[in-house]
Amino acid sequence: MRRLFQRYEKFAIFHEREGRPVPIVGDAAIAAAAIGDGRLIPLIILDTTDRPDLDELIRVHEYLPPGDVDIQWAVLPGAVGKIALVLSFKRPIRVVAILEFDIVKEGFLIDQILRARILYLQSGRPGGRFVTNQNAPKIFVEVPDTGIRGQWDKLFHKYVAAHLKAQGLSRHQARSAARQTIREFRDFGQFRMMANKD
Asked: Rounded to an integer, what distance in angstroms lies between the CA atom of residue 114 and that of residue 182?
């Protein structure tokens, strides 16, 4: 893995399956006044068909306080245009999960994770959607600032601009449109749900 910030740590893999990215089959955003100061918090639905350990981790978290987890942003070998979030859970169960995102298709999801500094994980199957299974067990994971933001901003703009240029815009137009698109998304991502004080 190529590191994306100065402090680099290696994570122990306890099973061969932990070395493969867990497929992401859906995502959403949840806003609650009591969690994350009302910010929009990304929710990621994982295909845990081959990861019963993750199913168990999420199930156990329903009944226990949040456990410890180390995080690392990285680029996996051979993964062009992608970025991975490695989650190494220490408690209540030792589990490693790699979430890999396509920068163009899922860049706004990555950006919102970095801004909210927290995310929800929910297990599921292909075709799963939050709207049809809102009561499914889920856990939240804190994603502290690791120093990636400066690098991410450049990387995000680069890939969005390249995508827009491939759609037929000139280089200058693509760069300008990328800045505008990212700015508009971030404005929307600033939404906060305020607590009812009545």
From this structure: 14
